[in-house]
Amino acid sequence: MTPAGEQLCYIDAYAASVRASIRHVETGETTLVVLDRTVAYPGGGGQPSDRGLLLRGSDGRAWTVRGARKADGEIVHELEPDDGEPPAVGDDVTIDLDWARRLALMRTHTALHALCGVVWRDYGALVTGGNMEPGSGRMDFEFERMSGDLVDAIEASVNVELAAERDVRVDFKPRDEAFAIPDLIRTKVNLLPPGIDTIRTIEIVGLDLQADGGTHVANTREVGQIKVTGYESKGRINKRIRIGLVDPRSAG
Ligand SMILES: [Zn+2]
What we know:
Helix content is about 20%, strand content about 40%. It is an alpha+beta fold. The strands form 4 sheets. It has a 6-stranded antiparallel β-barrel. The chain has a 4-stranded antiparallel beta sheet with strand order 9-10-15-14, with helices on one face. Helix 1 crosses helix 2. The longest helix is centred in the middle third of the chain and has 25 residues, at about 100-125. Zinc ion binds near residues 45, 113, 212 and 214.
């Protein structure tokens, strides 16, 4: 097995483009392309995959990347099927993300972690899942006593934390070490499959620490402020909170 291509999204969330060489092309209903390195996020943890362009250096041809996913450890790019003749193995290309969309997703993802941090700190409620689009998202909690009044207080507290300009740090920890951190246990690190021996963590310093594969902004100031846009009961215990960025910029 050849080693997987370089996956820059996990190390440098601000890498918007990179030059790469095509390693593998598969044609069928859609064209699938693997590069020797990429900045594309393949989706996961509630964060949708990136979109963008693949540009070939030799003749300036461009293909639309309409999504990406993980398969056998590789990040696979899915090209728009109507873009004609596919690129070839060995072609030198640049992968260029739809950066406005990715940045909106990073701000949204970090906002959702701030929400988790506040709900855990102030109410001891565990998060059970979440999902997002650029500029908006939702989180589900085991939060029996959630109410409209609490939700208003949560919105205000999240905005205080975001305005506190907290750094957001990415780290990689050995599995055993990660298991010893109570904050990580609460976000269900114990549900990770046994094959994974390194755990990637995202820390909003002083507020939240989670095992997470997503891309985040480097400081909460980049998120701006959030608004709670809705909340629902999904049962006696399970509750959902929806948020949106107050300034979504070019989200969507
Ligand atoms: Zn996350």
